[in-house]
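Write out the 3D structure for:
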Amino acid sequence: MISIRNIQYTVSCCATVREMEYDRLYRKMTSNQENGHFAKNSDHNVDMSSRGAVEPIDHQRCRYPYCIVWTPIPILTWLFPFIGHMGIATSTGIIRDFAGPYFVSEDDMGFGKPTRYWSLYREDIKSTVWDSAVLDASEEYKNRMHNLCCDNCHSHVAMALNLMQYKGSKSWNMVKLCVLILIFGRSVGLKGFLKTYLPAILIYGTLFFMIAYF
């Protein structure tokens, strides 16, 4: 029989391995910056400080600089509105998202355009650090199998935040992001709101009506 102590030990080991993985990638990221491995003119690595200002959010072109973005997954989100597909954008607004096994999409978000976005505080993070973290997390997840419950699009975003040590933290995870995008995320207009919540409202409204009157 599996004891509680064994379960606690297993969980502790998993957390330690994940922490070591973040440290390894963070050292690699900072080493690349120090050695000049950034392509200065790349879409991933544009230094916004040299351009004088952060590019504005552009819903039409799907540009969300320094944002976490979210879009519904058909059927799954209709039944559970708090579950959806997540990505993170570079300093120039290009979205990267873990869209499937061994595949990280670029500028073509899986399941369609974002319907919600969360603009993150960026004053303490250089654009090169931000973009490096997004790039390194994306490269890492190109080598991973997609797991809906344990290692998914939210995990990809969490790794990017941990690598850049957003808010001084390396403990970002998919559960925390799932909650925070609901609290701090903003709908992309009325269309985005309806696309997110209308199917669930119709489904549960119909069920309530049937239960109440039949």
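Strands lie at 67-72, 84-89, 95-100, 103-106, 116-119, 186-187.
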